[in-house]
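1st attempt posting a full record on here, be nice pls
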Amino acid sequence: MLQRMYERYCEKKGWRVEAIHRSFGEPGAEGRIGVKQASFQASGPFAYGLLKRETGVHRLVRMSPFSAKQLRHTSFAAVEVTPEVDVKQEKDIEIKPEDVRVEFFNASGPGGQNVNKRETAVRLVHEPTGIVVTSQASRSQQQNREKAMQVLASKLYSMREQEQEKEFADMRGKQAAIEWGSQIRSYVLHPYKLVKDVRTNVETADVESVLDGDLDIFIEARQ
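the predicted structure (as tokens):
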């Protein structure tokens, strides 16, 4: 749901959206399979500036379609927004080849079926930080490797920014942790409908529009 929401937001802004990776969870009720993890690249004017404050924990309350008993369920998802970084131009980001473990595997779809017979999907593990990046959108192993390296550089750049912000926050005595249970926004679909941003107290009962990408009231409140 979050993936579609952000993709719809990007489309409404006229930005280009490129899938990078998506993995699926175990089958639930009636064989329904949900997305476990997804990453994509949004390219367009002010894309990072508008989306960067979406980073954090998002809380969803609904009647779960993955439960056979159709019980109300609360779930959490972490959103991470990183800037696009050109490894060749960003000299401050150094990625040593010996620090990166490269793994190749078959790209998979819902239910675990292999999309490609060749091992075109790429997983990079940055040993010093433990960051793991996966790319499987392309049928070309080389293109997936280049995309994964670009995403890794973006994550390292974002990590450095967060460390700097943490230092400033420590100096001011205002350090806010992002962790499970400290969600930035809640999406309630049952027993009532409401989307509320915890940081700004902006809220709306028009949940359907929000999940269809109408995020301006929340994003503009944080600018």
